[in-house]
């Protein structure tokens, strides 16, 4: 059977990354977390004292920054300019700025370029916002994965552990705000591709969702 590419898009907290990793394991494919790439650009920009309005500077930064994704025991590691910045990608600061940084066209062009190269030889499960619509429009399987806003906030809240540093209500507001910005941006917004399968994971376990997508993947090879 030949290898295909699988695109999983959807809003924040829909469980895309966990599901995509499970699907990649089941099919022995490579998992690519594109959100981590946008987070990497955002984290480095903040570290250099740039604000998200400094679009030209951040565009340049994205173009010169070497971003590498490596498989790790507890998920994917991200190297930026050679150093491991995985631990810096999921802070509230990055959460609050990543949609603005991701709306910069030069940033998106550069990330899409890198992502297409990663998918060149097929056998990739890529999760993000614009994979089925923009990055890999020819992906053999496209899934639009979502869940109710409350459930998505709750999942993220649980990931934050004993010291969440934020209330569930505030998290739900932050997520809704990020979704709105991702949907309303000009260039490659969050959107369901017409040929994507819609999957609402509310009330389903990650394993159930992953099994369903893996089945679709096997059927498409
Ligand atoms: O998937 P994750 O929540 O880590 O993505 C973080 C942010 O990165 C999203 O809210 C979105 O602004 C941006 N993103 C994007 N396009 C992608 C993946 C992520 O704009 N393909």
From TrEMBL:
SUPFAM superfamilies: P-loop containing nucleoside triphosphate hydrolases. Coiled coil: none annotated. It is found in: Cytoplasm. It holds the Pfam family Cytidylate_kin. It catalyses: CMP + ATP = CDP + ADP; dCMP + ATP = dCDP + ADP. Residues 6-215 form the Cytidylate kinase domain. GO terms for biological process: nucleobase-containing small molecule interconversion; pyrimidine nucleotide metabolic process. GO terms for cellular component: cytosol. ATP binds at residues 10-18. Its EC number is 2.7.4.25. Its main location: cytoplasm. One of its GO terms (molecular function) is ATP binding. Keywords: ATP-binding, Cytoplasm, Kinase, Nucleotide-binding, Transferase. Belongs to the cytidylate kinase family. Type 1 subfamily. This is Cytidylate kinase. It comes from Cohnella fermenti. The lineage of its organism: Bacteria, Bacillati, Bacillota, Bacilli, Bacillales.
């Amino acid at each position: 059977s030949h290898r295909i590419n699988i695109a999983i898009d959807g809003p924040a907290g829909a469980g895309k990354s966990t599901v995509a990793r499970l699907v990649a394991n089941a099919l022995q494919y490579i998992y690519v977390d594109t959100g981590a790439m946008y987070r990497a650009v955002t984290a480095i920009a903040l570290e250099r004292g740039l604000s998200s309005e400094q679009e030209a500077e951040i565009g340049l930064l994205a173009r010169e920054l070497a971003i590498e994704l490596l498989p790790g025991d507890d998920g994917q590691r991200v190297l930026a300019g050679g150093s491991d910045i995985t631990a810096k990608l999921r802070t509230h600061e990055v959460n609050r700025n990543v949609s603005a940084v991701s709306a910069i066209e030069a940033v998106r062009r550069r990330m899409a370029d890198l992502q297409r190269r990663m998918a060149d030889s097929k056998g990739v499960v890529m999760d993000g916002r614009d994979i089925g619509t923009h990055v890999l429009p020819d992906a053999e399987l496209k899934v639009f994965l979502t869940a109710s806003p409350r459930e998505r906030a709750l999942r993220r809240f649980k990931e934050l552990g004993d010291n969440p540093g934020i209330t569930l209500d505030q998290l739900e507001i932050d997520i809704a705000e990020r979704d709105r910005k991702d949907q309303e941006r000009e260039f490659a917004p969050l959107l369901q591709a017409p040929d994507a399968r819609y999957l609402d994971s509310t009330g389903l376990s990650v394993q159930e969702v992953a099994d369903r997508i893996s089945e679709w993947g096997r059927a498409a090879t």
